[in-house]
Specification:
By secondary structure, the chain is an alpha+beta fold. The chain contains 7 helices and 15 strands. The strands form 3 sheets. It has a 6-stranded antiparallel barrel with strand order 1-11-14-13-12-15. It has a 5-stranded antiparallel β-sheet with strand order 6-7-5-3-9. A hairpin with a 2-residue loop joins β6 (276-279) and β7. The radius of gyration is 58 Å and the shape is elongated.
C-alpha cells in the first residue's frame, strides 16, 4: 500500500506544493563563494593597478601667435584713401592691387621721381648724342695722328736709306782724295810735281771731306726733325686717347648719376610704401608676396600718421601656441612631449582639444623669470581653420604615463617625507 492512501483528499492535493517544501541552507555556500570572488576581484584590481597607465600632466595657460611675418602698412604722415580694392580676409597674390592713396608728401615724391625720369630721358636723347659725336671727332683725330706717325716713320726710313747710299759714295770719294793727297804729297816732296798740283789735290780732299760732313749734318737735322715730329704726333695721339677715355668716363659718370638719381627717387617711395604703381598724383599699393589681408582701416578717408592702415599675413595663416612656464615646472619639460590644447573660445567637451607637440623650449628665463615654450599644432580636429592669433586657453602637457600603484607609492613617499619634516 502506498503512503498516499492514508492521506485525506485535501492533504493529497497539497502534497506537491512548493511552499510546503523545506528551504535548503545556502549561507555557508554563498559565504565561501563570496570569499573566492573577493580574492579574484582583489587580484584583478592589483593587476590592473600595475598594468593600467594614467597620464601625469599639468596645465598652463597659452596664447596663439603667428609664425609668419606680417606686413604692416603704417606711415609717418597722414594719407588719404582714394580707393580700396580689397577687403579684410581676402587672399592676395604677388602684384595684386591693394589700395590707392595720396598725400602732399606723396605728390612731392612722385614729382621727384618724374623729374629724375625726365632727366635720364633727356640725357639719353641729347647729351648722349652730343658726347658721342665728340668721341667720334676725337677718335678721328687720333686716327689721323696714327696715320701721320706712320707717314713720318716711312720718311725716316727713306732718308736713312738715302743716307746709307750717299754716305758710301761720299766716304769713297773722301778716302780716294786722302789717298791721292798722300801720294801727291810724296811726289811734291820729291820735286816730281809742282806745288800747284799738290795744292789742287789737297783742295779736292778738303772739299770731299766738307761734302761728307755737310751731308752728315743735313741727314742728322732731317732725322732729328722727323723723330721730333713722330714724338709730337705720338704725344698728340696719347692726349687724344686720354681725352677719349675722359669723355667716356664722363659719359659713364653722367649716366650713372642720372640712373642713381632715378633709383634714389624710386627707393624713397618703395622704402616707405613697398611695391607700388604711380597713377597721376597717387600711388596704387601692390602686394609684395602671397598672403591674407588680416586687418584693414575702416574709418574715414584720412588715415592719421602712425595709424595702421592695413596688415597682410604673408604665406599661410598658421599659428603656434606660446606658453610661459614657471621655473618650478621647467625641469619636467622636454622637447617632443605631447600636448593637448583646450581653446577657451571652443569648449573642449563640445569641440574637442587640439593635438599638439612641444618643439621649442627656451634655455634661459625671460625678464619675469619664466621660460618660453613653443607648441606646434599637429591635428586641429574640428577646429581646423578656426584658430587665430590672440586666442588663448589651457595647454595640457603630458609628462609621462604612470600606473595607479606608482601614483600610490609616490603619494606615500610624499606623505612620509612631509611627516619627517622634509620639503
Amino acid at each position: 500500500m502506498k503512503e498516499s492512501h492514508d492521506l485525506e483528499p485535501q492533504q493529497y492535493q497539497r502534497m506537491y506544493w512548493e511552499e510546503d517544501v523545506p528551504l535548503q541552507d545556502l549561507r555557508k555556500k554563498l559565504l565561501r563563494y563570496s570569499w573566492w570572488l573577493g580574492l579574484i576581484l582583489f587580484a584583478v584590481f592589483i593587476a590592473l593597478s600595475f598594468l593600467l597607465k594614467f597620464p601625469d600632466q599639468f596645465e598652463l595657460p597659452f596664447v596663439f601667435k603667428r609664425d609668419q611675418a606680417e606686413h604692416i602698412y603704417r606711415y609717418p604722415y597722414p594719407v588719404y584713401l582714394l580707393e580700396v580694392k580689397i577687403a579684410a580676409g581676402n587672399s592676395v597674390k604677388t602684384g595684386t592691387d591693394l589700395l590707392e592713396i595720396t598725400s602732399p608728401e606723396i605728390v612731392v615724391l612722385i614729382n621727384n621721381l618724374e623729374e629724375a625720369e625726365q632727366n635720364l630721358l633727356n640725357y639719353g636723347q641729347q647729351k648722349t648724342i652730343s658726347l658721342g659725336k665728340q668721341a667720334t671727332i676725337i677718335s678721328r683725330q687720333k686716327q689721323q695722328n696714327t696715320l701721320r706717325v706712320i707717314e713720318l716713320r716711312n720718311q725716316l726710313t727713306k732718308i736713312n736709306s738715302q743716307w746709307e747710299s750717299s754716305r758710301s759714295l761720299l766716304e769713297y770719294e773722301y778716302n780716294d782724295a786722302v789717298m791721292k793727297a798722300d801720294s801727291y804729297k810724296k811726289l811734291f816732296e820729291s820735286k816730281d810735281i809742282s806745288k800747284f798740283e799738290w795744292i789742287d789735290i789737297e783742295s779736292k780732299k778738303i772739299k770731299t771731306k766738307d761734302a761728307l760732313q755737310q751731308a752728315l749734318k743735313k741727314y742728322e737735322i732731317e732725322k732729328s726733325s722727323l723723330l721730333a715730329s713722330i714724338e709730337n704726333e705720338t704725344l698728340n695721339s696719347r692726349n687724344e686717347e686720354d681725352a677719349l677715355l675722359k669723355l667716356k668716363a664722363d659719359i659713364k659718370y653722367d649716366s650713372t648719376y642720372y640712373i642713381n638719381q632715378l633709383a634714389l627717387a624710386k627707393s624713397k617711395i618703395s622704402h616707405v610704401f613697398g611695391a607700388y604703381e604711380v597713377k597721376g598724383g597717387s600711388l596704387i599699393l601692390k602686394a609684395e608676396k602671397e598672403g591674407t589681408v588680416s586687418y584693414l582701416f575702416e574709418a574715414e578717408k584720412e588715415v592719421p600718421g602712425g595709424v595702421i592702415l592695413m596688415k597682410i599675413i604673408e604665406g599661410e595663416n598658421s599659428v603656434y601656441a606660446s606658453v610661459s612656464c614657471p621655473p618650478a615646472l621647467i625641469g619636467k619639460i622636454n622637447n617632443d612631449q605631447p600636448v593637448f590644447l583646450k581653446v577657451a573660445s571652443f569648449p573642449f567637451y563640445e569641440w574637442g582639444s587640439v593635438k599638439s607637440q612641444l618643439y621649442n623650449r627656451s634655455l634661459t628665463p625671460d625678464e619675469k623669470g619664466n621660460f618660453n615654450l613653443k607648441i606646434r599644432i599637429l591635428e586641429a580636429g574640428q577646429l581646423d581653420g578656426l584658430l587665430q592669433a590672440g586666442m588663448n586657453g589651457n595647454a595640457v602637457i603630458i609628462l609621462e604615463e604612470k600606473s595607479f600603484m606608482e601614483y600610490f607609492f609616490r603619494n606615500v613617499k610624499r606623505v612620509y617625507h612631509s611627516s619627517m619634516g622634509n620639503n
